[in-house]
């Protein structure tokens, strides 16, 4: 199998720091790659307002590849979760893409920056993640980071129940967890699970010497290659794992 993913996150359309020219460049670059999937891991809007959702949806529609979108804490502000469903559908979703199964999970709490899944979602994840064939890749999308990200100051807003969620993913042999939220690109490997925290693709909400960026993830039968791509800039190989 050969499967290419662009992991793009934290657009924050409507915020003072939103950089539309970066998002347009990101979309063009991703379209040139012709990935099998564009995974968008939340914070598409700034405050969950409908005008922001309209704008964000128009941008997301410019990706030519299949997109899967989950909400972030900013999207559920101002009861924006109502608009999320209207514009992007159910946050909790299982998508069968042949050799790859993607499970999107909504970790948001209304008008709260913390993230939480809770026991009923672990049970739902357990049910959704039962592997059909050993060769399949299983990918989970969740906005809040599962493991602390270096260089982000005081640790906060990690999933409240990150330990239980990680245990659920590892027990179900999930290969990849794609997260957003901290605007600092980083990867952690925990047992056979690769956890990727994407940066922000198109906002000025970044820390020193961190550019607007996204991840390119290449899955082959026995390998996983992670490349960090600066929007409009260079790319850097982060990991090349052989199984
Ligand atoms: Fe964000
Ligand atoms: Fe966030």
Structure commentary:
The protein has 243 residues and is α/β, with parallel strands linked by helices. The chain has a single domain, classed as Purple Acid Phosphatase, chain A, domain 2 (4-Layer Sandwich). It is 22% helix and 32% strand. The chain has helices spanning 20-33, 50-60, 81-88, 119-128, 162-171, and strands at residues 2-8, 37-41, 67-70, 93-97, 100-105, 108-109, 112-115, 137-142, 176-179, 186-190, 193-197, 213-220, 223-230, 235-242. The strands form three sheets. Strands 3-2-1-12-13-14 form a six-stranded mixed beta sheet, with no helix packed on it. Strands 4-5-8-9-11-10 form a six-stranded mixed beta sheet, covered by helices on one side. A two-stranded antiparallel sheet has the order 6-7. The protein is globular and about 45 Å long. It binds fe (ii) ion (2 copies). Residues 43, 72-74, 143, 181 line the site of one fe (ii) ion.
Compact summary:
This protein has 243 residues and is an alpha/beta fold. Helix content is 22%, strand content 32%. Strands 3-2-1-12-13-14 form a 6-stranded mixed sheet, with no helix packed on it.
Output the strand order for the largest sheet: 3-2-1-12-13-14
Secondary-structure content class? alpha/beta
Radius of gyration, Cα only, in angstroms? 16 Å
Question: What would the CATH topology be?
Answer: Purple Acid Phosphatase, chain A, domain 2
- Give the fraction of residues assigned to helices: 10-25%
In what range is the share of β-strand residues? 25-35%
Distance between termini? 14 Å
């Amino acid at each position: 199998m050969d499967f290419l993913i662009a992991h793009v996150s934290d657009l924050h359309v409507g915020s003072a720091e939103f950089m539309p020219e970066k998002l347009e460049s990101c979309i063009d670059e991703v379209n040139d790659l012709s990935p099998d999937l564009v995974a968008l891991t939340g914070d598409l809007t700034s405050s969950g307002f409908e005008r922001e959702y309209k704008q964000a949806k128009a941008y997301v529609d410019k990706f030519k590849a299949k997109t899967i979108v989950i909400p972030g804490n900013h999207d559920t502000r101002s009861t924006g979760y109502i608009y999320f469903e209207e514009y992007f559908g159910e946050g909790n979703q299982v998508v069968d893409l042949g050799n790859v199964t993607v499970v999107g999970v909504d970790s948001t709490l209304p008008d709260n920056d913390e993230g939480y899944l809770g026991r009923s979602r672990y049970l739902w994840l357990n049910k959704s993640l039962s592997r059909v064939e050993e060769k399949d890749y299983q990918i989970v999308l969740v906005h809040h980071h599962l493991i602390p990200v270096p260089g982000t100051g005081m640790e906060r807003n990690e999933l409240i129940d990150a330990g239980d969620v990680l245990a659920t993913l590892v027990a179900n042999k999930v290969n990849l967890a794609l997260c957003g939220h901290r605007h600092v690109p980083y990867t952690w490997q925990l047992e056979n699970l690769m956890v990727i925290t994407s940066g922000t693709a198109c906002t000025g909400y970044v820390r020193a010497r961190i550019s607007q960026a996204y991840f390119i993830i290449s899955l082959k039968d026995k390998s996983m290659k992670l490349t960090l791509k600066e929007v409009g800039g260079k790319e850097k190989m982060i990991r090349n794992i052989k199984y």
